[in-house]
Amino acid sequence: MIVKLPFATDTLAVDLRGLKVRPLEPAAPAGAADLPRLIRQALDRPLDGGPLAELAHGRTDATVVVPDATRKIELAAVLPVVLEQLARAGVPDRRVSVLVACGTHPPLSDGSLASLVGPVPSGIRIMQHDARDEAALVRVGSLTDGSAVRLHRLAAEASLLVTVGGVRHHYFAGFGGGPKMVFPGVAGYREIQANHARVLRRHGGELEREPGCQPGVLDGNPVAEEIARAADCRPPDCALCLVPGRDGRPAFAAAGPWRTAFAAAVERARHWYEIAAGRFPLAVASAGGAPADATLIQAHKGLDAACRFLDEGGEVLFAADLSSGAGSPDMQPFLDDPRPSAIMQRLAERWVQYGHTTLRLVSLTARYRVHLVSRLDDALARRLGFHPVSDPASIVHGWRRTRAGDMVAVIANQPVFPRLRPPA
């Protein structure tokens, strides 16, 4: 078997002939052949409530919250359909805003932003959320500990709020999309950090990972449960939830109140991307190509997913471009000293979400031997516990010589996850 792993905007061929191979593939179909039609049907026939054009009728303004470039949902094809519905309802272009839900991610350049959203009518305002811009935030409620939930003014005060997001497994929040488009998507930096800090808990005086914070887990997941409560402080009037197909393009769409649409998308994501498979001594996997493999912050999610199918101490050949490095300057102090004890000490003093990302990375490279094919600086890769390789064939050749009887799991495109429960 010769497998082609997505790598940036290209592919990386790995020759696995001579080895026992088990492809781990989602049940998802390819993305919709007519994506605008899929979106239009979802908005015209929501799972609950009225069609978007009906909801928008008589509204004085509208804000459409969309994901940033780290989330691939073919936004340039999806957004025009949403905007058409608003125009059809009589909402003037000059009263429509497209708000990019950056969360704590850095903003896009003007060129990248234009490429992300595609062509839009000239009167429509396009804004990128900045979680640290205190002047743009409006209080809409409180978190569990009583601290404020603040959202970008364009979302909090919109006469009509529409969210567009991709629903897929998230490595500690259960699933992405849905309520995450509101919180943390357009929330304040302090409350985002407070929420994400729930991924760790104190046990016996020490910090440890909260066991409920896992991909596919919503109930009993303190991060996911608080995200849902925060989103309910300013729920979208219409949430469009998309699930990707095996090629990464949307293959399923549901619209309506966020809880209804999100629940339908979650069930579809479970059905397509959770599989019944055991554990394997060896694996070959990709972070999924651009944009998922550009940074450590994004690419490590693919590694986390692949390692869930590995025996303890197993080996994985992992391909990720990583040409953009960490992905946030907030991660740098943890990369400088990525020892788990040093990371835990820093997090105990002050929570920084990308400290936890680094901790997760080094915990994976400590448990498994991760052969990394990337453009990341070799010294940094080794400091994080990776085994950088320039030629993946050398690793596969070694497996043929010493481990020809071992089964190799192959996760070539979209990440899959161990099934948490029998399908409905």
Protein traits:
2-enoyl-CoA Hydratase, Chain A, domain 1; Rossmann fold; six-stranded parallel sheet; alpha/beta; 424 residues
List the helices and strands and how they pair.
Blueprint: E1 2-7, E2 10-15, E3 20-23, H1 35-44, H2 52-56, E4 62-67, H3 75-88, E5 96-101, H4 110-117, E6 125-128, E7 137-142, E8 148-152, H5 153-156, E9 161-166, E10 169-170, E11 174-175, H6 189-196, E12 200-203, E13 206-209, H7 222-231, E14 238-244, E15 250-256, H8 258-273, E16 274-275, E17 280-286, H9 296-307, E18 310-319, H10 332-336, H11 340-349, H12 353-367, E19 369-373, H13 378-383, E20 387-388, H14 392-402, E21 407-411, E22 417-418
Helix pairs in contact: 1-3, 9-12, 11-12
Can you describe what's shown?
With 424 residues, the chain is an alpha/beta fold. The protein folds into 2 domains: 2-25 and 276-417, LarA, C-terminal domain (2-enoyl-CoA Hydratase, Chain A, domain 1); 35-272, 3-Layer(aba) Sandwich (Rossmann fold), CATH 3.40.50. The chain is 32% helix and 25% strand. It has a 6-stranded parallel β-sheet. A hairpin with a 5-residue loop joins strand 7 and strand 8. The longest helix is centred in the middle third of the chain and has 16 residues, at 258-273. The chain is globular. The protein starts with a strand and ends in a 6-residue tail after the last strand.
